[in-house]
Specification:
5-stranded antiparallel β-sheet; 434 Repressor (Amino-terminal Domain); 13 helices; alpha+beta; about 45% helix; single chain; about 280 residues
Length: about 280
Amino acid sequence: MDRDALADFLLRRREALTPADVGLPAGARRRTAGLRREEVAQLATMSTDYYARLEQRRGPQPSVQILGSLARALRLTEDERDYLFRLSGHSAPDRVTATDYVRPGILRVLDRLHDTPAFVVSVLDEVLVQNDASRALIGDAGSLTGMDRSGIYRWFASPETERLRYREVDHVRQSRSLVATLRAAHAVPGARSRACEMVTALSAMSDEFVRLWEAHEVSRRFEQHKVMVHPELGEIEVDCQALFTEDESQALIVLTAPRGSEAAGKLEFLRVLGTQTV
């Protein structure tokens, strides 16, 4: 790990960004060139003290997960992300199989979506980054680890909690859709992928999954209209739009409701309230 080069790289990339680049208000009396340390820490969901120690050349070796969060927060290109990993003493991620990296272009679109739930998902239905409105509606995915990061996995491994977000009448359709999505992901990059590991794990615990998997349905589409169930506000009807990356490895999901509708009022209430309990 090259602490001096890492600190300098983080500082230069932080100084090269403006609040507008990452969807933050500029505020008044800014003395710092670029972003403040606390702003980078906020975007990367880490403590300001931890980030400050990295820039001060006295921090511990960052984990792969921390580096992925920093790469997103600093809007690094894939080459810059690889460089960050190597400075920190890690091998650069495999660009074919890695899914946590979100391209700056997609992040810039997400940064401008404040009034409606929006989030970026991988081919395994892992929420990689989300806005506050999304956290208020579907929960904060930042604390999830391992296979639990995947909505596909949670749907079958923890149905008693995960399926509460959908009406019971929609459960069969959602199960089929998720398994078809996993089928599409399973074909690339092959049998040794994380998708294959997930298939093995789910096959051992869910008869429903096995039955649907054997049907060989393959698809990666999102329902254009769905009904989400919030634990306190009840049913919220939303339209779902998906913007895929060029290689279709990730998708930006945006949930909206017609202006003036009851659902729009509920989404606005959630946006203002945030993740507080009603």
